[in-house]
Amino acid sequence: MYKKTKFYDLNYYKFLGTWAWILHRLSGLALIFYLSLHIWVINTLTLSGSQFNQTMEFLRGDIFKILEVGLWGVILFHAFNGIRVVIVDFFSGSLYHKKLFWVMILIAFLLWMAGGYIIISHM
Amino acid sequence: MKKSIQETSKSGGLAWFFQRLSAIILFVIVIGHFILYHFIFQGDIQKSDVLKFTQYSWFSLIQFVFLLTALYHGLNGTWGVIEDYVHHRIWRLILFSLVITAGTGLLFVGTLTIIRVSSIA
User: Fold this and answer.
1) What's the confidence (pLDDT) of residue A61?
2) If you ran DSSP here, which 8-state letter would residue B38 be given?
């Protein structure tokens, strides 16, 4: 009925939509991993009164600022490509999905630059 | 026993629809969350800053909707990826149990945090 796909079997030809799909999956998996850590860390922080400010002091380090800019980028890519997926599914977007991809990427990139600037300027 | 195409397309169709519905809700909440915690507080967040908001019940409600939709969207997405690559029935059962356990655990921990933080103020 169907050919079983191995996770390493990515040998088929990749169009723009394929890359968008691959990156959407990878960014999604990265975000659920981050979300799990985030829920866990925030929980332990709220257990004790002074621990919150202490840990936030630690997280104010430059390396975390760089990671924060990266997180903002991954969120924006996943969010704006996700909106493209919704438009493709509900509004005949398959007719113009490639153009839509670049429009979404442009908006995401501008927001990434603006947000990244705010984060970096407070390093 | 094999399921009929009507049966599987119904449950798959609902998951597909809720994945898009939760995506639209998350789009708004995630960007709002980032603007509040990362841009307005400008990386200088103190516990008292957070508590200013958590005393309002509407804020806690949004946090709960955020938690619920993010976990649903993330774990349903993870399950979608697993379904594409894992075909053995036993492995699927093991991984599905893991996804459900992680979801329940994180929902419990997250809800506790929201309740605890909202009752401090």
Assistant:
1) 80
2) I
